[in-house]
Amino acid sequence: MGNSIVFSRPDAKTGPGYLSEATTPHSPGLVLFEEWWGVTDHIKEMADRLAAEGFAVLVPDLFAGQVAHSREEAGHMMEGLDFDDAATQVARGAAAYLREHGAERVGVMGFCMGGALAMLAAMRDPDDFDSVVVFYGYPPPEAGDPATIRIPIMGHWACADEFFDIAGVDRLETALATRGTPHEFHRYDAKHAFLNPGGLGNFHPEHAATAWKRSIDFLKRTLT
């Protein structure tokens, strides 16, 4: 089980987070961005599962303890989030915390809203991360050029996603291929948030297990 911490940002502000540490010293680090629901028990469980695989995991609490109980509430919380601040100041601060506590290599990962943030962090902070794993979400075209990503990226996408059009995934993949960025994109015959047993009720056990194993293998390959 993890615990609550406070970490410093490059702008000298601080941010809250949930830290789940691996049992081995100098473990690779992983910044994990939450879904739009906030830092729920599900997200904490994901962090703990990753820690059990040998990663030191820091989940920045972007909503400062708030957890949404409906789609409307989650949407309102997300609308109030400063994405640029989260993808730069928060992401850099969290990565620095993990490095200061022994991680030589640090990855970034996220689900839904957090997936878009993970990709944004890889675009905006190319020297802070060594690889990125994205579930479901991606940033809008006006957020920047995904071809600026230089680190290895793995993406897990739902073909029937009601929030993120699969055609946008095709455009992302084309941009990354043109740039020559190492990438592994996996598409699943599923709906949005298929890894989450709660949330929207779209949990798909088989695809969830496959995507999780692929992610662990990728992170171990790129961070250890």
Sheet with most strands? 8 strands, mixed
Approximate helicity band: 25-40%
Strand content: 15-25%
| Tally of contiguous helical segments | 6
Distance N to C terminus: 23 Å
Question: pLDDT under 50 segments (min length 5)?
Answer: none
Find the count of extended strands (DSSP E, 2+ residues).
Answer: 8
Which structural class matches the secondary elements? Answer: alpha/beta
Overall radius of gyration: 16 Å
Silhouette: globular
- The chain-level mean pLDDT equals 96
Strand order of the largest sheet: 1-2-4-3-5-6-7-8
What is the H-and-E element order?
A: EEEHEHHEHEEHEH
Oligomer: single chain
Walk me through the structure.
- With 224 residues, the protein is of the alpha/beta class.
- The chain has six helices and eight strands.
- Strands 1-2-4-3-5-6-7-8 form an eight-stranded mixed beta sheet, with helices on both faces.
- Helix 3 crosses helix 4 (113-124).
- It is globular, with a radius of gyration of 16 Å.
- The chain starts with a strand and ends with a helix.
- The model has no long low-confidence stretch (mean pLDDT 96).
List the helices and strands and how they pair.
Layout lengths: L2 E6 L5 E7 L8 E5 L7 H12 L3 E5 L10 H9 L3 H18 L5 E6 L1 H12 L6 E5 L17 E6 L7 H14 L3 E6 L16 H19 L1
Helix pairs in contact: 3-4
Summary, kept brief:
With 224 residues, the protein is of the alpha/beta class. Helix content is 38%, strand content 21%.
Distinctive features:
single chain, 224 residues, alpha/beta, 6 helices, 8 strands, 21% strand
